[in-house]
Amino acid sequence: MSCVKQRDGAQGAGGAAERDFNAFEVMQPRAPAPTPLERRNGARVKSADQRPTGLYLPNNNTMAPHMRSPEYVQLSTAAAMTLGIMAGRMHRCECTRCLNLLLTYPEGCRANCAYCGLARHREAERDYADRNFIRVDWPAVPVRQILDIVARDGAASPFHRMCISMITHPRSDADTVQVLRAWTRRIDPGAIPVSILSNPTTMSRDDVVRLRDLGADIFTVALDAATPAIFERTRGKGVQSPHKWQKYWEILLAARDIFGPQKFGAHIIVGMGETEFDALQLVQRLVELGGHSHMFCFFPEKGSLMDHLPPTPRDQWRRVQLARYLMDYAGVRLEQMRFDGQGRVSDFGLPRAELDAVIDAGIAFRTSGCPGKFREDVSACDRPYGDSPPSDIASFPFQPNGRDRRRIRRQLGIPAVRAES
Ligand code: SF4
User: Fold this and answer.
1) Which of 67, 71, 233, 295 is the least buried, fewest Cβ under 10 Å from its Cβ?
2) Which of 168, 198, 243, 268 to mutate to test the pocket of ligand 1 (most atoms within 8 A of CB)?
3) Burial level of 37, CB count in 10 A (0-12/13-18/19+)?
4) How many structural domains are present in the chain?
5) Is the CB of 269 inside a 6 Å radius of any atom of ligand 1?
């Protein structure tokens, strides 16, 4: 068995430097401030009512035009560069393999999740189309323009998967259907499969059935919080947001029934106050249900209600990231692992040589998400720098090299027993 040495003094009540995990009592979001009436519900964009004229680049000193799904969507900066509609280069990445689309409306998302850059409280200072989300801007584009490019590229398309991200908006369910229909009319979903990142709050079981029948391949639920208490504090009443843990599970279980094994999953953000045991207990539950967990390392998103809080210490993140990979892809169960009194992984439940082989393979430390065309355990959704800066990568959007792996080992506190190349 392979044991991990944690730093002493981790329970100090002081700053991040003294801790090796983000404790519940530290990770308290700010209370949202009231929004002036004239900024609510996209009023500024709707009263200016400027006609969109194609690509809209956020934060470019122009007024956001009146854009709405299903005609318009936003897409990640990485996807816009890969499509060739936006200039730029990504650190150590040629492209992204997932075309992440986000529904868009002047009213924006009506939920108020504390860690999210799209949250409702931000309407006080920033129009929806100008808000940062998982650390990057999301340009807005007509859906037709995206379809034209992907259809034109055909088999040469760099994308292994497309994903529609719903938000909390009265039109979100119907418009997700419209965007999916528009996609499958032009693009073979067998060639570029579609994932749905759902918004359970407004959905019924019938909505899940409809999306499967229209050709969606994988259905995921952004549970994000690993425990009911963190969910309530960051996505529910704690921040005047409408989400309910029970409703999220209702739709997650519906997805299990309707999409089937390995075709559903949940997002989990690590480092919002749960213990490592809490996060991995949830991973185990998802494995037992037949699904996958897609993990994000908490990062204090600028402008969010948690932007004053510390990012997840790298040792906490690496332990959970590695343990999750072992559970999802190497058949290791929670009961085989050992945890210390603070719920931190102290033993990964594998013989040392096997653990070393997994660490050296590096895949465990890549971004997790829906699979692409390379292999089952390599996510198409690579989200370059969505949960960390390039200087201190949490989820690697590419294969970590020898230097990266040596750093990962230092973060894990598991030195190599033999020289690495
Ligand atoms: S529902 Fe999703 S998009 Fe809306 S605030 Fe919450 S996390 Fe952000």
Assistant:
1) 71
2) 168
3) exposed
4) 1
5) no
